[in-house]
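Budget justification aside, the reviewers requested a transparent look at the raw inputs and outputs of the sequence design task funded under Objective 1. We therefore reproduce one unedited record. The lines immediately below are the structure tokens for a 243-residue chain.
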């Protein structure tokens, strides 16, 4: 527990802790002479839960993290060339703080040799928070879902075609994607098929519906969100055959 030691007009807080943080005022009768707000300073790592995500290799990404409800945060990035970026104010949404960044020196065709460093500063009603995190963009890439999924029935097979996410960089020969097709069979079971570097494939016509996801095949980032389920019309075809 903190101890307050008064010597003349000076007040010393010995062993400052969270219960002792807050506003301190100096009064002469009913006149306020001075005031100061005292917080506990330190580096906080536990509970920050910093998460960063990039849609592609364009050098832009967003980060979110947890923090005290009463806190105000700002964030700054050490760029890929080693220089310091400007401080960015963080917004709060759904219980988490958020900030977006762009590294203008990032080159998607070059190997990442130096990690980016994210620095967070926050001030709450009881404490000053200083936290940093390092990462490579290649480790935080999570593409958007593939687009324009189409299904065409040809005989006893289904021809599936799709396009990469609109946010994915070009050329496709350099920025290949690994696609994961998930499809549902007549008995309700689901199966997966993986396709790398291509934007079409074939399935048996008994498949009921299909959806698709993707990721970079050369690193280990997360899979993209799934596209919506796409019906194949197989059930209708079976009904017509039974007539």
């Amino acid at each position: 527990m903190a101890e307050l030691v008064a010597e003349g007009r000076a007040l010393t807080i010995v062993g400052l802790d969270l219960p002792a943080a807050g506003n301190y005022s100096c009064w002469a009768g009913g006149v306020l002479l001075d005031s100061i707000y005292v917080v506990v300073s330190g580096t906080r790592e536990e509970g920050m839960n910093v998460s960063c995500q990039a849609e592609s290799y364009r050098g832009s990404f967003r980060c979110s993290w947890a923090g005290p409800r009463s806190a105000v945060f700002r964030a700054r990035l050490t760029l890929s060339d080693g220089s310091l970026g400007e401080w960015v104010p963080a917004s709060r949404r759904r219980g988490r703080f958020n900030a977006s960044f762009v590294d203008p020196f990032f080159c998607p065709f070059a190997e990442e040799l130096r990690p980016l460093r994210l620095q967070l500063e926050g001030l709450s009603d009881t404490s000053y928070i200083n936290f940093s995190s390092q990462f490579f963009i290649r480790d935080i890439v999570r593409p958007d879902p593939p687009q324009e999924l189409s299904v065409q029935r040809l005989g006893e097979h289904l021809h599936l075609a799709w396009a990469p996410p609109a946010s994915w960089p070009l050329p496709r020969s350099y920025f290949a994607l690994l696609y994961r097709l998930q499809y549902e069979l007549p008995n309700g079971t689901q199966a997966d098929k993986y396709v790398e570097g291509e934007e079409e494939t074939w399935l048996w016509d008994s498949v009921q519906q299909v959806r698709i996801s993707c990721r970079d095949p050369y690193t280990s980032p997360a899979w993209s969100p799934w596209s919506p389920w796409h019906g194949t019309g197989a059930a209708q075809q079976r009904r017509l055959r039974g007539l």
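The longest strand covers residues 127-135. Residues 10 and 26 are 10 Å apart (CA to CA). Computational costs for records of this kind are itemized in the attached budget.
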